[in-house]
Automatic annotation (TrEMBL):
Gene3D superfamilies documented for this protein: Heterotetrameric sarcosine oxidase, Probable tRNA modification gtpase trme, domain 1
SUPFAM superfamilies listed in its UniProt record: Folate-binding domain
UniProt protein name: Sarcosine oxidase subunit gamma
UniProt xrefs under InterPro entries: TrmE/GcvT-like (IPR027266)
Length: 184
């Protein structure tokens, strides 16, 4: 049997970390993702409560509970993450919690994520997207175009997360690096 080696979205054997001036960009590969689409006429709040959240996240917000994060993606659409485990059971756990109220799909390999920390994050995001990153408070999550790519920008107490399509990981990383270099 062939030995397969998992690669990060950027093609490395381990997540990449770049520090440029006051910004650190970290490739995140240890999170499992599941999308939740509430079915017409149904309420997914009980499902989110079963996962440890207070309920479904409100418009443009992110919630944290029990090591997981859930954020609003659109009307009756959410994304939920948790620590990645090799068994790949996160989406099944979310589906069990949601029951018949929502359709759940494993999105773990569909997205890339870069965490941003440091004093220059607000300036970096202001140069790359149309969000008013200066007024975004921890617990905010918004969809936006970042350098012509559809992304989600999340603000937490720990810093910022930018999620984009896995297939655009290299382009998204390049855009973040180029602007970070310009901030120095």
């Amino acid at each position: 049997m062939t030995d397969l080696t998992p690669l990060t979205p950027l093609g490395g054997a381990s997540p990449r970390v770049d520090t440029l001036g006051s910004v650190t960009i970290t490739e995140v590969t240890d999170r499992a993702l599941a999308s939740v689409a509430t079915r017409k006429g149904m309420d997914a709040n009980q499902g989110f409560e079963a996962l440890g959240f207070a309920g479904a996240p409100a418009v443009c917000t992110m919630a944290e509970a029990s090591g997981s994060r859930a954020w609003w993606m659109g009307p009756d659409q959410y994304m939920v993450d948790a620590a990645f485990d090799q068994s790949g059971t996160w989406a099944a756990k979310v589906k069990d919690a949601m029951g018949d109220t929502a359709s759940v799909t494993d999105q773990s390999e569909g997205f890339c994520r870069f965490d941003l920390t440091g004093d220059g994050c607000v300036d970096l995001l202001q140069r790359l997207c149309g969000l008013d990153s200066e007024t975004m408070q921890p617990g905010s999550a918004q969809r936006t175009q970042l350098h012509h790519m559809g992304c989600v920008v999340i603000r937490s107490e720990a810093g910022w997360s930018v999620l984009g399509a896995h297939s655009s990981a290299g382009s998204l990383h390049h855009a973040l690096l180029e602007v970070a270099v310009g901030l120095q």
